[in-house]
Amino acid sequence: MSRWPTRALLVLALVALPVQAYAHEAHAHAGESERLPMMGAAPDFTLTSQDRKRVSLHDFHGKVVAVAFIYTSCTDVCPMLTANMASVQEKLGSAFGPKIAFVSITVDPERDSPDVLKEYAQNFGADLKGWSFLTGDPATVHEVGRKYGVIAKKTADGDVDHTLLTSLVDPEGNLRVQYLGVRFDLEEFRGDLLSLLDESK
Question: What are the backbone dihedrals phi and psi of residue 84, each rounded to the nearest 5 degrees, phi first?
Fold first, then answer.
């Protein structure tokens, strides 16, 4: 049964992803042994966290990582995505933090300082032992987004139109799947995180 656009491997011709992506209409898992596809090495980055620490993707080696792009003054899809991730965070129990991590990168670095991101994280009940909210120099942030297939553009009223993609990275640093939009199946998302963790055992 098709779930497009729930989970997708996307052809992003406009952004020249450095990984081999291909069109894929997401479908129900065939069984417990089904492995998520391999898209290539996840693009590394080094940005600044809500605690003003430098954080790189390679710091999470050995963990499953979900990488999302949001901004704190967003009033529609970003808070929905962050709230959804927070609900999954709670369902992951003791695996969250030591084995599974979330990374939310702002697409509005001019306004989203570390202090603003920390307040945003606290408002959503994010467990900062396993969830990093990152910002940085606008050009650097833009380039990180581009590498993940995220295009962001400021509107006249100060909002940011951006591609809403959430990427899963396995413990070896490989990009495995991307979720498009905000209405993806949260149980599928949780199951994919755990399946990538199981692969590494």
Answer: -65, -45
